[in-house]
Amino acid sequence: MRLPEHGRREVSGELQKAMMDKDIVKVRKDLKKLLQSQPLAVLSTQGRGQPYASLVAFASSRDLKRLYFATHRSTRKYANILEDSRVAMLADNRSNTVSDFRWATAATATGRAVEVEAREINEASKLFLTKHPNLERFIQSPGCALCEIRVHTYFVVTRFQSVVEVPIAL
């Protein structure tokens, strides 16, 4: 908290923490709204030392700890995940206009991607299909893998350069 020189006072550590906690609660609420409102995101993987980006349909868990996407097991992204499970996923609400520099929000989730385990497939499929009912035949096809990103951290960018790091405890 910054005050003018004539009115400058120290903000206690306890007050600073309360202000930061309040900000994080708001950022988490805005992040949840962003992830729920956007149907597509960009998934970044890497394989053989080369980054690779893919547009994917996704859904998020209510607690923000998991992001789900579906892909065919024959894709480059799936092969890359098997080679190196570290991924990043970017979701944003841009409109591709000049106003985006001021008003767009982007969130990058970092974590590890794995295929959803058999014991969790029904719940994960239900969550994914609630957002993407048109992909039911795709995720039920034999070669399709429903994957989850176990999110470690979100980086939320607003006003073009304001970045807030939101760690996620698994």
Overview of the molecule:
By secondary structure, the chain is α+β, with helices and mostly antiparallel strands. It has one domain: Electron Transport, Fmn-binding Protein, Chain A (Pnp Oxidase, Chain A, Roll), CATH 2.30.110.10. The chain is built from 5 helices and 7 strands, in the order H-E-E-E-H-E-H-E-H-H-E-E. It has helices at residues 13-37, 76-83, 100-103, 121-131, 136-140; strands at 40-47, 50-60, 66-72, 86-92, 106-115, 144-158, 162-167. Strands 1-2-3-6-5-4 form a 6-stranded antiparallel beta barrel. A hairpin with a 5-residue loop joins strand 2 and strand 3 (66-72). The longest helix is centred in the N-terminal third of the chain and has 25 residues, at 13-37. The protein starts with 12 loop residues before the first helix and ends with a strand.
Structural class: alpha+beta
What's the architecture in CATH terms? Roll
Number of strand elements: 7
Please state roughly what percent of the residues sit in beta strands, choosing from under 5%, 5-15%, 15-25%, 25-35%, 35-45% or over 45%: 35-45%
- The whole-number mean of residue pLDDT values reads 88
| Radius of gyration, taken over Cα atoms and rounded to an integer in Å | 19 Å
Order of helices and strands: HEEEHEHEHHEE
Q: For the report, how would you describe the main beta sheet?
A: 6 strands, antiparallel, barrel
Tell me the distance between the termini. Answer: 31 Å
Number of helices, where a helix is a run of at least 4 consecutive DSSP H or I residues = 5
CATH class: Mainly Beta
Q: Find the CATH topology.
A: Pnp Oxidase, Chain A
Q: Identify the overall geometry.
A: globular
How are the strands ordered across the major sheet?
A: 1-2-3-6-5-4
Approximate helicity band:
25-40%
Number of domains: 1
> CATH superfamily membership, which one?
Electron Transport, Fmn-binding Protein, Chain A
Query: Which regions have little confidence, pLDDT < 50, spanning 5+ residues?
Result: 1-11
